[in-house]
Amino acid sequence: MKIMVAVKRVVDYAVKIRVKPDKSGVETQNVKMSMNPFCEIALEEALKIKEAGLAKEVVAVTMGPANCVDTLRTGLAMGADRGIHVEAASELVPLTVAKLLKRLVEVENPGLLILGKQAIDDDCNQTGQMIAGLLGWPQGTFASKVVLDKEKQMATVDREVDGGLETLCLDLPAVITTDLRLNQPRYATLPNIMKAKSKPIKKYTPQELNVEIKSDLEVVQVTEPPKRKAGVILSSVDELIDKLKSEAHVI
Fold first, then answer.
1. What is the mean pLDDT of residues 146-160?
2. Which of 98, 96, 114, 104 is nearest to 43 (CA)?
3. Per-residue pLDDT tens for 115-144?
4. Fewest beta carbons within 10 Å, which of 15, 38, 119, 210?
């Protein structure tokens, strides 16, 4: 079985986000970029499945400008066998990404498609559900545990819901999106980083995949959240109740 994993290049989670002066978006120039943390979890799970002898190949896929290859190389250094880069200069919305993934699935024919549940830059949480809908495949989102049965060609997925855990049994091929508690991603070792330089990366353009790049969304303005006011220390419960009534208006 082949596993395809989608990975995304985002602003590093430890970087303080700065809004551009014209408020058209966030500043990405001279900013550290890295693989989306949820995508790291997705790739780690695919590698674990392969190491358990349940898959023969892990293919990492990314989309975006030329510098997205750096993120793909990170995935190859973690252990992916090869990479696919769909080069696109313009920004890609989730539906376009899902359409591109659908075309790649038709080319590669994987038995399992794993994605992070969301990216930390736009927090859309849409691509996994959209690609499952386009393919007509069963989906297990927010996975906190994944168990594959090779003989029955089935995946059992524990997913986190508001009331606790829900267990789904999915016939393969299927789409799985990963949550934080699924695993702890490995670090790429220096020898593997060197090996990753020789691993193949196949390039496509949206035109070659017959997908039109367009957006139904328009960003009107990006602004920073308002700064929180300093808290106050109250001397009694009566004073707290008074402020909740007169200032907060919650009681």
1. 92
2. 114
3. 999 999 888 999 999 999 999 999 999 999
4. 210
Task: Mention every residue, 6+ apart, whose C-beta is less than 8 A from residue 91.
Answer: 215
Mean predicted confidence (pLDDT) in 105-121: 94
Q: Please say whether the beta carbons of 141 and 92 come within 8 A.
A: no
Query: Does 77 or 122 have the greater pLDDT score?
Result: 77
Sheet strands (E) in 36-173: 57-64, 82-87, 112-116, 139-149, 154-161, 164-171
pLDDT reported for residue 74: 94
Q: Which two tokens stand for residue 56?
A: 């023969």
Give 119's contacts (C-beta < 8 A, 6+ positions apart). 8, 10, 36, 38, 39
- Sign of CA pseudo-dihedral 106, 110, 116, 121: negative
Residue 228: pLDDT over 90: no
Question: Which candidate, 3, 11, 7, places its Cα nearest to that of 55?
Answer: 3
Contact 219, 91 (CB under 8 A): no
3-state secondary structure at position 155? strand
Average pLDDT, the chain: 92
74: how many CB neighbours lie within 10 A of its CB?
A: 22
pTM reported for the whole predicted model:
0.86
**CA gap 20, 184 in Å, rounded:** 34
